[in-house]
Amino acid sequence: MMSCELTKNETALFELLVLLIENYESLYYPLEKPTFQATLESLIHEFDVEKNTLVPILGSIETVNNILSGREKICKSQAEKLANFFNSLSSELSLIDEKFRDCL
């Protein structure tokens, strides 16, 4: 249905199918909110960032490791610096410090 021109009725049916699938998935396969650590690890991997690169932002390699392992949380200034750092790596990103501060 996605690869051809649809009539008005076919479009309505397609939209209904999408809603039904989304509803089914949300009921039986709900997505959990990603953790801060998972988000940070994903960004590090996606942009091929070395942990040492985060030392000026987070303070020390020990702090970087503690944050990534979940043993330590970040403060507001660290959250702002992380958002700015990753935004500077891609014009497509628009991270805000609240994305990182959810775990404070």
Could you explain the architecture of this structure?
The protein has helices spanning 8-28, 36-46, 55-58, 61-69, 76-89, 97-101. The longest helix has 21 residues, at 8-28. The protein is built from six helices and no strands.
Uncertain segments: none
Give the CATH topology of the domain at 36-101.
Answer: 434 Repressor (Amino-terminal Domain)
Average of the residue pLDDT scores: 86
Beta-strand residue fraction: under 5%
SSE sequence, one letter per element:
HHHHHH
Q: What kind of sheet is the major sheet?
A: none
Structural class: mainly alpha
Indicate the CATH architecture of the domain at 36-101.
Orthogonal Bundle
- State the end-to-end CA separation: 45 Å
- Number of discrete helical segments: 6
Organism: Aphanothece sacrum FPU1
Protein name: XRE family transcriptional regulator
